[in-house]
Amino acid sequence: MTEILPSTSETAQAQQFAAQLAQILELEFHALRKQEIDDFEQLQPVKAELLGLITSLAPPAEELQSASDWQEFRSTMTDCRDLHRRNQVLIERKLDAIRGTLQSLRLPDATSSLEVYDRLGHIARFSRAQGYNDA
């Protein structure tokens, strides 16, 4: 059985798309850091399209590992994986911060104490029950 190797143009196209994907992932990171959600969302269809094109051009993983002409593509895609993971970590950290903020804004039970800063910048402890008792 003869193995059909992809043409050089397919390899070059896949490498070009992988390089574009790396650029999109960098733009995603900058949009996330600056909290520009609209910019981040505009990049998603472009990224999905590039991933579709790459998937259609690249050979199956088993063949990709053994094909020497795909080495640069494999390297770029490994970089893209790392960039994607970096973006994922940033998103998770931002979500954790948001969850923490939301949790701190929720009203705990009436007997718990609340720490706030007074006018001099010192921590003052207040009991929520005290406010209810005064009323």
What does this structure look like?
The protein contains five helices and two strands, in the order ααααββα. It is mainly α. Helix 1 (8-33) packs antiparallel against helix 2 (37-57) and helix 1 packs parallel to helix 4 (71-105). The radius of gyration is 26 Å and the shape is elongated. Residues 1-6 have low confidence and may be disordered.
Give the gist of this structure.
By secondary structure, the chain is mostly helical. It has one domain (8-109): Methane Monooxygenase Hydroxylase, Chain G, domain 1 (Up-down Bundle), CATH 1.20.58. Helices cover 70% and strands 7% of the residues.
- Number of domains in the coordinates? 1
Supply the helix-strand structural class. Answer: mainly alpha
Report the CATH architecture.
Up-down Bundle
SSE sequence, one letter per element: HHHHEEH
Backbone shape:
elongated
**Helical run tally:** 5
Total beta strands: 2
Low-pLDDT ranges: 1-6
- CATH topology (fold) name: Methane Monooxygenase Hydroxylase, Chain G, domain 1
Determine and state the CATH class: Mainly Alpha
User: How far apart, in Å, are the first and last alpha carbons?
Assistant: 87 Å
Strand order in the sheet with the most strands: 1-2
Nearest-integer average pLDDT: 82
Percent of residues in helices: over 70%
Strand content is: 5-15%
Q: Biggest sheet, open or closed, and with what strands and sense?
A: 2 strands, antiparallel
Tell me the radius of gyration: 26 Å
